[in-house]
Each structure stands twice: as C-alpha cells, then as structure tokens.
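Morning F.,

Quick status update on the modeling queue. The single chain you submitted on Monday has been processed. Sequence for confirmation:
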Amino acid sequence: MDISELIGKLFPAGERESLRIVRIKGDASNRQYFRVHSTSGTAIACIDPAFRGVDPEAYPFLTVGTLLNEHGVRVPEVREFDSLEGLLLLEDCGDRMLQDEVESADAAVVADRYRQVIDILVSIQSIRPRPGSAPFTLSFDREKLMFEFDFFIRHALQGVFAGLLEDTAIPALRLEFEFITGLLVRPEQFVLNHRDFHSRNIMLSGDEPVVIDFQDARLGLPQYDAVSMLRDSYVQLDPSMVDQLKAYHFSRLEQEGLITTGFSDYLRYFDLMAFQRNVKAIGTFCYQVSVIGNDTFQRSITPTLAYLPDYIQARPELETAGKLLEPLIRSIHR
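Structure tokens below.
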C-alpha cells in the first residue's frame, strides 16, 4: 500500500480521491509527517512505526498529549488514528516555530514570548505524579543519564571526533560523567519534564504557542527543560536575556511550590544540567551525521559545543571533565 492509500484510510471514502499530500521535513526521529489538503481544510498525517500494533492507551504520544491537554497545555488536536497501521491525523498548527520568531523579532518581543513559554513550562512541571502510570514511571535516573553520556562517547568522541582525545582520557572522562550523574539524580526535586523543550518544538499557531514532540516526557530536575529552552542548540539568546529568564523561571517555580532550594542552588544545578543536556545533544547530532547520514545536524554541533566552557568555568564540579574535553572544545576554533 502506498503513502496516499495509507493516509487516505484516515479520511471518508468520498474525500480520498481529492487529497493532496505533501511530505514535511521531519526531525531526528523515525516518524514521517505529511500535510494533507482535503475539501475540509488541512491536517497533519503522521506515520509512526512505534505506534503500529500498539494499544492506544499505552502509546506515549496519546497518553502524554491527553495528560497535557487535561492540564491546560495547548497541544495539537488528534482527529483520527489507526494503531494497526501506526497512523495519526493531527490538527495542522502551521509551520511557524518559536525559532522563527527569535530570528525575526526584536528583543522585547522575544523576551515576552519566552516568559509566556516559561509559564507553559511551569504548567507542565506543576502536573502532579500519578503513581505507577506513564510518564511518571520514567525519570532521568542514573541509567538514563549515563546512557546519554555513553551515547556521546560512542558517537562523538569515538565517532565524528575520533582521535581528538587520547585513549586514556575516555575512561577517565566516563568516571567524571558518573560523578556528575550522581549530582543530578535528586528524585526529591523531580518534576515532570517535556524532555525536548526547545525552539523547534514550540509551534506558533496564530499567536498561540502549541507544544509538540512531547511523547518522551519523564521526571527530572526542573532545570532540565529550562536548559533545553535557554541553552538551545538551534538559537542562541542574548546572555542578559538568559539571566533574566532563569530568574523568571525560578520565581515561577517558587510561586507554584515546585522548588525548595534558593536561587544560587537553582543556578548551580542549571549549569550542571546544562552540561549534561548539551553533551547529550552533541552525541545525538554526531549520530545523525555519522550513522544516519543526516548532515542537517552538522551545523548544530559547534554552537552546542560553544556552550560548554561557560559551565566548566562556573562550576568546580565540572573542572576535571572540562580539562579532559579541552581538545574537543578547542577544535571548534580551528
């Protein structure tokens, strides 16, 4: 069955012949997206191999999307789905992303937008855990964080940047990653995180932010999603704006009773979490470039690497890891 026939199954029989289907460039996932023009307007069709043959009540995109919607977080409406074929038909929220606004609007507009998005983030982080139910059964525990650090070692240090570090440096670096992981696993501080809360996953439908790509939500430090947004691999915000937005996020967490530490501790864990998150992103980009052959992520490696010295210089806990990574960090200035 070809793509047109497959997607046509989501529409009434009388509309199928007139459908116009256009492929949309996707992200780093295995999902395929299409904009479908029909007599009733446009919609987005998604083909997800991970949904094929799965109970809809166990499919994270649907369960997390329902959870967010119930708590007032704007997500795309699900219009139809077919779990046997791994198909979803979603509301079309347009093509404009937060990234586009950052690149085109003045600083005051961008700052206002980010405060609005932080309010949405805090709404997500305010959702109370339901014991034993997804996504609250998942967290940034030691296993998950070390998997991401090891992914970086395999695809960045032993892949794209193979030979930059001495062989003895990698085992020593992994020990430092174990140490950093130990600092970040603080379940008593965990809240719900989107897990990929950056400028390409906030659509602007009209003037309304719509959250997408939320299916990997899990518990973690509240700084995790703030790092994704403020130390974004796709857009670089003005440092003074970043400082103001960190303070705004902290104040909103305080208002909602979601944090018990002071602002200096918030900033410390922001930097430690940012180090981990950006290292993880570099590993993902290197995997996409060297294994998948998706060169569009090549341009995101250097700006993400460029963030690391700030954290390393600010936090003594990162000093040893920083020294071991120095050849990699220096490579972006060649």
